[in-house]
Structure formats: C-alpha cells, structure tokens
Design brief:
With 209 residues, the protein is an all-alpha fold. Helices cover 75% and strands 0% of the residues.
Length: 209
C-alpha cells in the first residue's frame, strides 16, 4: 500500500497557512499569544508530525514490497502512534473544522494499515498451510486429503475495501488542505496531485510457497 504522498498534503496545508499567519503574528510583544500565532503553531505541529509519520509509512511500503509481515506490523504501529498525536492535539477555534478533517483522515489511514496487515497475515497463514500440506503429501500415502488452497480472491477483495478506506482518508486530508488554503487566502494544491495520491493501489504482495 503506497502512502508516500500523505505528507505532501499536510505540508502544502502548513505552508499555505504559515505564509499567511507569519506576517500577522510578527511584532507582538505581549505575553498572550495572538490567534495568528496559535494557528501557526498548530499547523507547524501538524507538519512536523506528518513528516515523522511519513518515514514510518515509507518503511511500511518497503515491508509490503518485501512481504515482511513482522516489519509491516512494526512500521504500521509506529506510524499509527505518530499520527495519533494529530488527533490528540487541540486546534485553535479558526481551525476546529480543519482539525476534524485531519482526525478523520488519520483514522481512515491507520485503519487501512491495520486492515491490510490482518488480510495479509491471513493470506500468508493460508499459504504456509498449503505449503506444509503439499510437502506432507509428497511423503505420505496417496489417500491423504487434498492440500488446502490459497484464497487469493478473498485477499484481492479485501484489498479493494482497504483501498477505499485509504482513499477516504486521503479525501479528508485533501479537504482539510483546501480549507486551510481558503483560510490563508491561498490556493489549494493542484488537483492532479491529490487524485494521484487517491488513485494509488495497494500492493497485492503474496507469500511465496
């Protein structure tokens, strides 16, 4: 499952709002932070967290390509913990709705990671059982029960559902990005980048027998 462009959505939103708010917050000597400063700090935190999560997601992609279930679990858990920091943040009032979209996007993305691992683990278990039965058949009597088969069709169907959840997450992030850009008086990122991210398909890696 490729999620490497997720961080770009956060980064574009952060860049847009920072450019707008940085000038408004300059020159304040008071102890209390201005609304612009709070907005800027919130978006800076989101951007930092997303950059950290992007590293874990990159590791997850690599693990999927290699069919390494243990590495998938480790990197997905790490990414989920980092992304959860966004959900736990408190957003300034002007960015409250933006925060809700970020949270929805994070929830869908972390769920997609978990569901992919579960589906892949089931597929791998099925493949291991089939391989073990095949080896046993070769050394046992001809009356032994047929070896189990690997249900790749079920896995493909699960991946399609997981892709839909991932696309939903990306849609929430893209919406948050547009909302931030509107608040900042800027423009949202080009549509082709968002559609490209949403159109990416999960890698249907299968364990070898």
């Amino acid at each position: 499952m490729s999620m490497k462009r997720m961080s770009r959505v956060f980064a574009c939103a952060a860049a847009a709002v920072l450019l707008s708010f940085v000038l408004a917050s300059c020159g304040g000597d008071g102890q209390q932070k201005s609304p612009a400063q709070l907005n800027r700090e919130y978006m800076a935190s989101v951007n930092t967290i997303s950059a950290e999560a992007a590293d874990s997601l990159s590791s997850f992609n690599a693990a999927v390509s290699e069919g390494d279930l243990a590495a998938m679990r480790l990197s997905a858990s790490d990414a989920a913990k980092k992304l959860e920091k966004i959900s736990e943040m408190t957003a300034p009032e002007p960015l409250a709705q933006v925060h809700e979209e970020y949270k929805a996007g994070v929830n869908d993305l972390t769920a997609a990671l978990s569901e992919y691992i579960e589906a892949y683990a089931a597929l791998q278990s099925s493949a291991d059982a089939a391989a073990a039965s095949k080896g046993s058949t070769q050394t046992s009597s001809r009356n032994q029960a047929p070896a189990p088969t690997v249900d790749t069709e079920t896995f493909a169907s699960q991946v399609a559902n997981i892709q839909a959840r991932y696309d939903s997450g990306m849609a929430h992030l893209a919406k948050a990005d547009s909302m931030v850009a509107e608040l900042a008086g800027g423009e949202a990122p080009a549509k082709d980048e968002a559609s490209e991210a949403q159109g990416e398909q999960p890698a249907e890696e299968q364990p070898q027998e």
